[in-house]
Each structure stands twice: as C-alpha cells, then as structure tokens.
Amino acid sequence: MQINTKLWLMLCLIIGCGTASEVNAQGKVYYTVDLGVTVSFFDKKTAPYPDPSAVAAFDKASRASLELGGNINYLLSNVFTLSSGLRYAEKGGGYKTKNPDFIYVNSVSGSKTDDAYNYLKYRLVYLELPVVVKFNLFRALNIGSETADLNLYGGVTGGLNIGSKLRYNVFESGEEEKWKANKLKGAEDLLLSSVTGAEWSNGPLMLYVRYTQNIGNVYDTTEPGYENFNVNMHTISIGMGIILR
Description:
This protein is mostly beta strands. It has a single domain, classed as Porin, CATH 2.40.160. The chain is built from two helices and ten strands. It has an eight-stranded antiparallel beta barrel. The radius of gyration is 21 Å and the shape is elongated. The chain starts with a helix and ends with a strand. Residues 25-219 form the Outer membrane protein beta-barrel domain. Pfam families: OMP_b-brl_2. This is Outer membrane beta-barrel protein. Keywords: Signal.
C-alpha cells in the first residue's frame, strides 16, 4: 500500500493546528521540542535476508541514530496530561560478523591492530504521530520544587515509513573500508507501536527516556524475497528538549 507523504504531513499539521487553537484559549496547553539519540535492534537472531544461509554467521547488533520532534500537551488535570505531536525518527537494526581476512591497523601507532567486522545495518526512517497520557508523579505525591516535574507516560504511536535501506561495508585489499547502501522496498508503509517513557523537567529544560516496540512485522513478508523478514523492532530513545508555555 503506497501512501502520499505530503498528504500525511498535511493531515498531521491540520490536526495539530486545529487542536492547538482550540485548547490554547483555555490556557491549558504547552509545547515541547526535543532532540534525542535512538538505539534500535530487531528481535530476530538471524539477519533478515532473502537467502538466510548467506548471513548465518552474522550476530545481532544495534543501530544508533537520531530523532527530532515537537509535541502539543494538554493539561487534563493537575496530574494527567494528554500529549500528541509529530516526530522524525531514524530506527532499524544491525548485524555483524568478524572478517578473518582483514584487520584494522592503528593509523597513529602503526602497530596496534583490531578485528575487522562486516556489518549489515537496516535503516528505517519514520514520520511518527504519538498519542500518550502523562502522569505527573511529583504532583501526585506532592514532592519536588514548584518548577520540577517527573512525568511517566504510555500510549501508542503511528509511523509512516519514508525511507528503508540496507547499508553494508566492503573490504578490498590495499584500500580503505567502503560503505554501500541498497533500497529495501519491503518495509510496511504504516507501523503501529506501543510507547512508554519518563520525562523530567525543571523550568524550560526537559530530559527524557523512551522505549518503543512495534506491533506486527516491520517488513511485509508477503513481498517476493521477503519471506525471511519477519522481525519486530525495539527502540530506546534518550534526549533533551525545551518546554514552551
């Protein structure tokens, strides 16, 4: 199923602007903008690949990347907040295996060596629309300062896939390590995920940690050549942001 990316973005902006204008008049809305690091991995022990025997020696690893987002937060009460927004998130998974034919030589000392590895890095890029409910623990227990808050939250997030690639490195005798990338067209266009996290703030500064797990397969296993792509994805995000009131 192919979905127009511009249409999705327009829909998200219309919903966000309409919600903001409605609740802002009541003085119960505030905004957050954040930037974070994501560490993602697949639950499948063997790398998803058209020919499983070709990647049997690869062990599961993770993939680190970035995310950027903004949220509209509506105060339901002194303790509960409803939050939604738009997020650009790079996720995926990784696998690696030792390459016995090559080693890394330290360019400074010229003598120290390290093992060389072949990597498979599955890059998935999403535009996400999260909807979560936050519980302010500090206010519920009446602890902390007047400006500090600790929110625990949970909910769901819908993601539109806007990019899917497989990156891998190649070693050639007498040359530097090279990285190449191929498009993977089998990624599901829409992905639904559960999300839980914690968010600490003091004044305009915010720090957060978040865990996301998709519901269902990341790839469409009915696509020819994708029968071995039955994987789920787990993502841990850590970052900081600014609160705008």
